[in-house]
Design a protein that fits this description.
single chain; 234 residues; five-stranded parallel beta sheet; four-stranded antiparallel beta sheet
């Protein structure tokens, strides 16, 4: 039985060949391309189950590619693993802000890469089990629709990245509970996801800004982490 289809966008041909070989060996259907433009064309009419995306690409770079994906309702839910030699914290944060689901730094172990691929695909399969008709969550003027990946604030839609949506849904589903940054990361991305406290803080800052006056519902608990207020004004 064929496994999922994976689009690999990588301009270094030796790395592209290595990744292609190892993914195909695991039974995945692989579409290899060497530029962002080719990647966008490859998705015309058939969307992949996962994208492995290099950041440093000619033409449309990885961040711009990711930005376009997440702004399109048809492709926003496709998970992306960024594979790049740029491992500075600012690059990790930028990737997360764009909605990347994982981040692998070159040089990498093929075993580690395959494990990350399997982990992201498992999460995608788990999340896809949410029915569009599942009950929405309504709290303090914010309505969250898990199946549609949609958020309404005072009746108006708010454009969140995939990661911002998951962080909001996680916190709002448990009002009053306090979570550390690592608990938040593990809940929305899976155990042992390599990310800094700073990256989590960036997601929270973005959420608060987009939620407007409702952003105060996400409260900082000094020395611990964050919580979603169970009562407005508490």
């Amino acid at each position: 039985m064929a496994k999922e289809n994976i689009l690999v966008v990588e301009d270094e041909e030796d790395i592209l060949a290595l990744v292609h070989y190892n993914l195909a060996k695991e039974g995945y259907t692989v579409t290899p391309v060497t530029s962002g433009e080719e990647g966008l064309r490859a998705m015309a009419g058939k969307y992949p189950d996962l994208i492995l995306l290099d950041l440093m690409l000619p033409g449309i770079d990885g961040l711009e590619f990711c930005r376009r994906m997440k702004k399109d309702a048809d492709t926003a839910a496709i998970p992306i693993i960024m594979v790049t030699a740029r491992g500075e914290e600012s690059d990790v944060v930028a990737g997360l802000e764009m909605g990347a689901d994982d981040y692998v730094v070159k040089p990498f172990s093929t075993k580690v890469l395959l494990a990350r691929v399997k982990n992201v695909l498992r999460r995608r399969e788990r999340d896809s089990g949410v029915s569009p008709n599942d009950d929405s969550l309504s709290i303090h003027g914010i309505v969250i629709h898990p199946g549609r990946n949609e958020v309404l604030v005072d009746g108006s839609p708010v454009d969140l990245t995939f990661t911002e949506f998951r962080v909001l849904h996680f916190l709002a589903s448990r009002p009053g509970w306090v979570f550390t940054r690592y608990q938040i990361v593990n809940a929305v991305r899976g155990d042992d996801y390599a990310v800094t406290d700073r990256a989590v803080d960036v997601q929270i800052v973005g959420l608060r800004k987009k939620l407007g006056r409702h952003g105060e519902c996400i409260e900082t608990v000094r020395g611990v982490g964050y919580r979603f207020k169970d009562q407005v004004g508490s």
